[in-house]
């Protein structure tokens, strides 16, 4: 019986120390977000998916913020962090990770922290491509290779070296095959060879690309062609927007393959990690953010924004709703123009209508609040109807107080419920009432001032007014002041 081949361990180094001056912002480049995640999240995540353990992130500018962001989005992942105190080039950045990989004997992937479109399949392809060579590196062919290192091949066809643009000759600048900034090397070769990298170049930096020439001198280097749109880095705000659009399109295609209908995929925004069930329809300009989950057979109307929200099967969200940390139950109907704030929980088959706002409120199964209403810190029983203009006055200027409404109650329009207050099952509240005391089950509560009609009041009021000056009644105008 053949002995199974031992899998070579894989580690990864992600370079994320740079500031990114071309972004023109105070934030480090790798912290700019694409589809709800910082740029650096994507290469780290893909390296983990490709089997890298550990992943060492080389940080520098805003190091603490970068580490905090990655740990928040990838809790429990085998991450390590190495600080590059001086920005002396990519080879120097990789050397900064060496203490974090002390004792590791296997393959080392090296990735750039600004490549959000890189796929797990591409990383695996580079790992396979290395074979028995000491180094494999990714290349891509560009129509306009300006700014990239050019790949120069030896006469026999293999890669001989990578020449950075500032060091290239006019002839070398015509080469369209460029370095993609993705490497796979044996750990022993990597650390031994990096000590030979110098800084005799136009930028006086230690180039990681020098590994190609040093590998070609002995154990050999191989090139792995990768799609240009995957490996291209993000360097400015325009490239950030293009990457966001491309990644969103990729997420949209994944949803459509899973049975979701996107009426206009080009007008759809979605964060990484969002889930949507089959037979759900997403209308144009919908945005799904954070940890949002939308069930099967739902419909989300145009212009709606859902953040960290769960929508159960069969629910309908009408256009232009804004939800945050909310729950919408099965077959519920919400909108249009509804706002569900954190803690809002709409029960099965319940209705929340136009210009209704819920905050930390549970609306029971089949309950309705259809118009112009604010319900905060409230628990509302099943089958209760909340009339137009109702307000739960939950805040006394210092503390929040709860409102509890039982099942099958009827709250008339323009009711003001001053919390803390409890309204029992089946109770009725008359329209226009302001209530400050509890209402027993089955009772009718009226909190109005008594209406008084004064006959002939309007005519008497007008007759009592002083007569207006004659000039004003006639519309006379004051004479203009003479010139000079």
UniProtKB/TrEMBL annotation:
The biological process GO terms on file are: cell morphogenesis; cell wall organization; lipid A biosynthetic process; peptidoglycan biosynthetic process; regulation of cell shape; UDP-N-acetylglucosamine biosynthetic process
Required co-factor?
A: Mg(2+)
* Chain intervals for the UniProt region annotation (N-acetyltransferase): 259-484
Indicate whether Phosphoprotein appears among the record's keywords: no
Segments for region (Linker): 238-258
Q: Where is the MobA-like NTP transferase domain?
A: 12-137
Q: How is the cofactor bound?
A: Binds 1 Mg(2+) ion per subunit.
Question: Which reaction equation describes what this protein catalyses?
Answer: N-acetyl-alpha-D-glucosamine 1-phosphate + UTP + H(+) = UDP-N-acetyl-alpha-D-glucosamine + diphosphate; alpha-D-glucosamine 1-phosphate + acetyl-CoA = N-acetyl-alpha-D-glucosamine 1-phosphate + CoA + H(+)
Function, as annotated, reads:
Catalyzes the last two sequential reactions in the de novo biosynthetic pathway for UDP-N-acetylglucosamine (UDP-GlcNAc). The C-terminal domain catalyzes the transfer of acetyl group from acetyl coenzyme A to glucosamine-1-phosphate (GlcN-1-P) to produce N-acetylglucosamine-1-phosphate (GlcNAc-1-P), which is converted into UDP-GlcNAc by the transfer of uridine 5-monophosphate (from uridine 5-triphosphate), a reaction catalyzed by the N-terminal domain.
List the protein's name: Bifunctional protein GlmU
């Amino acid at each position: 019986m053949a002995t199974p081949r031992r899998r070579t361990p894989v580690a990864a180094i992600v370079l994320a120390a740079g500031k990114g001056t071309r972004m023109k912002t105070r934030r480090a480049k790798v912290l700019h977000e694409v589809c709800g995640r910082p740029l650096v999240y994507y290469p780290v995540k893909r390296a983990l998916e490709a089997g890298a353990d550990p992943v060492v992130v080389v940080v520098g500018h805003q190091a603490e913020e970068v580490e905090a962001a990655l740990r928040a989005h990838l809790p429990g992942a085998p991450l390590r962090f190495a600080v590059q105190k001086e920005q002396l080039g990519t080879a120097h950045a990789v050397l900064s990770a060496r203490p974090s990989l002390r004792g590791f004997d296997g393959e080392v992937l090296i990735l750039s922290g600004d490549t959000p479109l890189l796929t797990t399949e591409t990383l695996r392809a580079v790992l396979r491509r290395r074979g028995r060579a000491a180094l494999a590196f990714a290349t891509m062919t560009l129509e306009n290779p300006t700014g990239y290192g050019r790949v120069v091949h030896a006469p026999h066809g293999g890669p001989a070296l990578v020449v950075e643009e500032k060091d290239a000759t006019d002839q070398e600048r015509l080469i369209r095959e460029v370095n993609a900034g993705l490497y796979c090397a044996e750990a022993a070769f990597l650390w031994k060879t990096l000590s030979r990298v110098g800084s005799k170049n136009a930028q006086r930096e230690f180039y990681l690309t020098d590994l190609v020439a040093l590998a070609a001198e002995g154990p050999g280097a191989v090139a792995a062609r990768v799609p240009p749109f995957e490996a291209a880095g993000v360097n400015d705000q325009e490239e950030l927007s293009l990457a966001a659009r491309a990644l969103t399109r990729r997420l949209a295609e994944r949803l459509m393959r899973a049975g979701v209908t996107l009426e206009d995929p080009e007008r759809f925004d979605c964060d990484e990690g969002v889930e949507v069930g089959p037979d759900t329809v997403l209308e144009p300009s919908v945005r799904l953010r954070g940890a949002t989950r939308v069930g099967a057979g739902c419909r989300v109307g145009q212009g709606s924004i859902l953040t960290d929200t769960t929508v159960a099967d069969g629910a309908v969200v009408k256009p232009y709703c804004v939800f945050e940390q909310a729950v919408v139950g099965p077959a519920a109907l919400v909108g249009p123009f509804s706002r569900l704030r954190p803690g809002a929980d709409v029960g099965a088959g319940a209705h929340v209508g136009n210009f209704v706002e819920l905050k930390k409120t549970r609306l029971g199964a089949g309950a309705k609040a259809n118009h112009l209403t604010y319900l905060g810190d409230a628990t509302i029983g099943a089958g209760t109807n909340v009339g137009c203009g109702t307000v739960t006055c939950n805040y006394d200027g210092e503390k929040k107080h709860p409102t509890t409404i039982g099942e099958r109650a009827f709250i008339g329009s323009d009711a003001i419920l001053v919390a803390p207050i409890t309204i029992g099952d089946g109770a009725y509240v008359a329209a226009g009432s302001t209530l400050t005391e509890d209402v027993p089950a089955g009772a009718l509560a009226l909190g109005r001032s008594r209406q008084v009609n004064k006959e002939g009041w309007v005519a008497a009021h007008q007759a009592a007014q002083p007569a207006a000056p004659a000039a004003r009644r006639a519309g006379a105008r004051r004479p203009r002041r003479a010139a000079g």
